């Protein structure tokens, strides 16, 4: 029996060009944003956006057409309902529709506005005119069809941690950005004083977005090296270990990567981890301790945490 809170398209084409995407829209109470973001990311959404109007939260996630079938969307909706009801809130209203890349790029403009992060950074939409005077470091982004805008708590935790760590170690030579998305963390690190960033992501859309972000912010390929892949590609590229790294991805992927973090960092290396729910923090710390890392500092926002770690 169809759930009244789940709406399916009335006419689903059978053959569509690869430039089309499913937009999943979830409407509920404002306190649900972290839970909804987490579930959409767990299910593979390559970008999320949110807004609150009249005490009503709308969260949108995006899945490429070639990675999902209609039945998968039905399962995703059911999981979202279960998540929300398990924490005592009414089932949200869930709908989805097919959109083009152009629609997606335009949709960001409805949700996203300039946002200050930390003491020095300003995330700035590419379609807005650059201010004549700005005391902050401007990170210009045009997310397109890859990942988010820096508004999510995990990204902001990473940006603030980067600012803190780089201020303590002026002009570090290089960092790695594992799971770079739009390249926002690499760009922030370079603006804050890092000389070179190595950015990798398993999704080719993210690589294209990072390359576009690099050009948009006036950076060169010598400053920001980008390649599809993960730690293996960074290891192959490095002539010398990096001083630090960022890793803002899901906790279970971080667990798999922890044994290999030392392969890219020098003896005094440090890292910033996020994408970790508060409830997942103990298992991450346990794995870090087992592989020669110690947690120097932690930061929490809503239900998420970031860890600044150092080699022992």
From TrEMBL:
Gene3D superfamilies in the cross-refs: Vaccinia Virus protein VP39
Q: Which domain of life is it from?
A: Bacteria
Pfam families given in the database record? PrmA
Species source reads Acaryochloris marina (strain MBIC 11017)
The name this protein goes by in its record: Ribosomal protein L11 methyltransferase
Please verify whether the record's keywords include Methyltransferase.
yes
Q: Name one GO molecular function term.
A: protein-lysine N-methyltransferase activity
The record's section on CDD domains has: AdoMet_MTases
**Record's function text:** Methylates ribosomal protein L11.
UniProt: S-adenosyl-L-methionine binding residues: 155, 179, 201, 248
EC numbers for this chain: 2.1.1.-
Could you tell me where this protein is found in the cell?
Cytoplasm
User: Which keywords fit this entry according to its UniProt record?
Assistant: Cytoplasm, Methyltransferase, Ribonucleoprotein, Ribosomal protein, S-adenosyl-L-methionine, Transferase
Q: Which family does it belong to?
A: Belongs to the methyltransferase superfamily. PrmA family.
Biological process GO terms, please?
Answer: methylation
A GO cellular component annotated for this chain's UniProt record is: ribosome
Q: Which reaction does it catalyse?
A: L-lysyl-[protein] + 3 S-adenosyl-L-methionine = N(6),N(6),N(6)-trimethyl-L-lysyl-[protein] + 3 S-adenosyl-L-homocysteine + 3 H(+)
Classification of source organism: Bacteria, Bacillati, Cyanobacteriota, Cyanophyceae, Acaryochloridales
